[in-house]
Amino acid sequence: xMIAAIIPVSCSKKEKTEQNKNLVSLEIRLSVELxxxxxxQMLEQASARILEKNNFVVSEKRQPLxxxxxxxxxxxxxxxxxxxDASLDALEPVPGRASVAGTGTLSNERDLxxxxxxxxxxxxxxxxxxxxxxxxxxxxxxxxLGHPEADVQIFALRVLxxxxxxxxxxxxxxLLSDPRKEVADSAVGVLAQIGDQRAVEPLIQxxxxxxxxxxxxxxxxxxRIGGPGARSYLEMxxxxxELRQIxxxxxxxxxxxxxxxxxxxxx
Length: 267
Known about the structure:
This protein has helices spanning 15-19, 37-53, 112-134, 138-144, 150-163, 169-174, 181-194, 200-205, 212-225, 228-240, 244-266, and strands at 7-8, 22-30, 56-58, 66-76, 81-90, 96-105. It is of the alpha/beta class and 267 residues long. Helix 5 runs parallel beside helix 7 (181-194), helix 7 (181-194) packs parallel to helix 9 (212-225) and helix 9 packs parallel to helix 11.
């Protein structure tokens, strides 16, 4: 259970240094097991080090870029295992989130606060990386789609979707076959948002037999993209798929395409 008190992080810097860097303010919320001055200082230092390496300065006053760190920890019975969960949220002006779980074995050299420090360090690195991606150019975002971590790929996909970045279509299509379901599903949503006709045939080819949820997402994406290829596929599903749920979904999607096309034809 998290305690209600908020421990503000402070880090004094000269004004001239602050003027040349990005200001950020932090809050740390600790669970009862980790609530101590020692842990506070340890996490202050760990957070500040990561931020300073990335041209940020921690300010005593609340800034437009404000990071909220929530940390909980517990000892897991008598086997010496300890668990720490760290959740970091960048609130404004560019929202982002990084969640990391750490697991370790207690010993004389390694204890719960130390595990908390390592876990927060990893989460802070992820959050800073996300922040940089949110303001990156299209080429850098496309490169991030090849990152080994699914969280990085999904964040890059989200930014590309918000921008409706057509130059990323081919790279996003490549993720439709990703074995990690969360990555492949995110790619479907991005292609629907971008709305480029190049995605229609790859979406159809990516359908996996007997995966109803996946097919429903692709039906929705095709309806949003539109075009002759999407219409033909939806008509085929509506007229002959073995599952009534799929037939109904395809019929509704086709009707939605019709309603979108009529106003365009009127103009």
